[in-house]
Each structure stands twice: as C-alpha cells, then as structure tokens.
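Continuing the series of single-chain predictions for the mutant panel. This is the parent chain; the variants come on the following pages.
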Amino acid sequence: MDTEVTLRVDGTTYTLGVDTRTTLLDAMRERLGITSPKKGCDHGQCGACTILLDGWRANSCLALAVAHDGAEIVTAAGLAMDGNLHPMQQAFIEHDAFQCGYCTPGQIVSAVGMLDEVDAGWPSAVTAAGDAEVVLDEAEIRERMSGNLCRCAAYANIVPAIAQVARS
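Parent structure:
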C-alpha cells in the first residue's frame, strides 16, 4: 500500500504515492524523472546523491520519502536562478572541476551546503576548538567535502572552485 507524500523539488510541488521503503533519491529519479542527484553507492558513502533537504546537506539515498513529507529539496539543477548559473556551478566550469561529471551535481550541492554550514558557524574536525572564524583553506575545504567522492580524482580543481566562491 502506498503512502502519499508531497515534496517540493527545485521549486515545483509534487504529490505522489510511495512505498514506505522508497528513498528520496528513488522517488526523485524513478517517479519524478529528476535525475540531477545520482545513484552511486546507494549506501551514503559517495555523496553523488547529495541534495539540500530543508536547507541542509543530505544524502538522498539514505532519506526515506515518507519521513520528509512536505520537505523543500534543492538539487544541482535547482541552484540556477533566472537562467543564470549559481556561482558554484560557474566556478566548477571555470576551474574545470570535473572529468566524467557523474559526481559533479552532488559535489556542487554539497559545496553550497558546506558554505552555508560555515556561515552558520558549524565547526569541523580541522577547525581549532574555540576559533572565532573558520578559515576555508585547502585542508578545511577537503575535510568538509570528504563525504563527496570523485572517482576521477578531480579534487585538484574542485577545491580551488569552492575556494573561489568562498572568497566572493
């Protein structure tokens, strides 16, 4: 028996019936045709499925759709506004921060969410205890993005792309 849920994805509201075991990733990809979040490991280890869930980073492969009825979801496709790329999307292009591109939507969404977490004052394992301000150097960015893997190893360009946006 399906349970009805309402999800707002990239500004559009959808109501659909889902099995209680259906993840947000599967609901978006298989039921709604939203393919920006990718299914990589399906275990929350690679970050290819990263979305902003009610404003915060989440692995959509681990989140059950029924647990997020009424949620606001933003994917990489929903970051662009009025036909203009989000600054993070533009930075990834300028820095050639992708190779095959499979992880790129998750990387971009995660980077946007990570910058919001820094703005909110969330510490990381690299941040020194009691630091008044987080310095987004290479080590800090790498730590905060460690949940997003790139099999092509484009990190040498991903980190500078994120740093560019952080500075602006």
